[in-house]
Specification:
It is a single chain. Helix 2 (34-47) crosses helix 4 (88-96). The chain contains 18 helices and four strands. By secondary structure, the protein is mostly helical. It has helices spanning 2-27, 34-47, 59-68, 88-96, 103-132, 137-148, 151-157, 163-182, 186-200, 209-221, 238-257, 269-283, 302-310, 313-320, 322-332, 340-361, 374-389, 393-417, and strands spanning 262-263, 266-267, 288-290, 293-295.
Length: 439
Amino acid sequence: MRPHYHRTLAVAALLLFFALALDTAGCNSVTTDEPLHLVHSVAMQQTGVMALPEMHVPLTYRLVGDLLGTEGLLPDVTQSPSWPSANPYDIGREYTWRDDLPTDRVVWLGRYVVVLMGVLLGALLAAWTWTLTNGHRPATGIVLALYALSPNLLAAAALLTTDMAATLTWFAAVYTWWRYWRRPSWGHWLVAAVALGLALAAKLTGVLLLPITFVLAYVAVWPVGWGDRKTRPYGWARPGLVWLAMLPVAGLVLWALYGFETRAALPMPAYWEAWRLLLTEVETSHANFFLGRIAPVGSWLYFPVTLLLKTPLLQLALFLLVPVVLWRSVVSSQRPAAGRWRSVAFVALPAAVLLAVAAVSRLNFGYRHALPAIPFLMLLGGQGAAWLWGLPVARGRLARAALVLAVGWTAVAALRTHPDHLAYFNELARGKNLSLIHI
């Protein structure tokens, strides 16, 4: 009955997420960045390659373009008057609002692809939460409810951008890598390698997964190791070699999504151009808006403040339990049959690296840049919820009652916010100047 209960609970939560995200996608007008992503998708469908220089990679564009290809003949984007400029922003605005393009339907179809990515992310979160909490029904239910009602995830899933693809593939790459080390097999290894390639093709920040997965390979075998040379060839070098063998497969997946394009014997020229543009962008001074001030350099406090003011309170409270989860995992590592800390490390390290890089970059451009860390934090928070639910006697009853009431309040707040999830602020910011941060 436990797997059956888990699947029923997951399906109900994912259907709720799907309904809310799809309704939001149909209600909201076109946002500033969506014409850019739309024209990349159409160009990829019509030319087969990343025809315009941009700091983005092709996964979302390939998927959206394939769906748009079923709509019949769309106007040829290469015949747009702005096409010779190679400026995707100008081309996107011009193409999106031309009279012979069914803009509402085309944008909605692009958003529909992103909604489905959000549903798949929720399914992976459900599966990993169920496993790490040892089938703890209340904790799994709380995490799934928070996911289905998360304003920030619903906002990202209802827009034609690359943020949900990055969030999904980050989570999928780490989850499949964890599954491989839990039960090593060629099938699990291949799935992990493909997932890593998809993450590299979702956003340039996917490259951070390369050092993360390398470190996690050794976390998975520490302190036991992989035996000496007599019992296992290559001994301690083996985890690194397993990781290294993934790279050609991941690279092939990335190249395939670029349409196997080669220029002057250089594969994926658009990928290297994207890196050049990104590094140029980082070196250039930009206006950053934070706490009512405009500055050429952003503040490292931006993401802590943004998470504090734009995260639902129950979700935020579970995030604050993460140190407890980390401490309990360290304590459990001193007991027989220990190993729980390894799974916690697989969840905690990607979130910590992403948030640290986002803060150090000091580009104060929205909650979405921290979004890939959120499912990992929710997963850690779910383990904290399981600990709270299991507290003894009076404290346990009080904790369970508080969690149930908090879930109810989260549902009320989310439904009151719907469909304006992009502009959501939690109760800590209510009644204050909500224009303090760039959302």
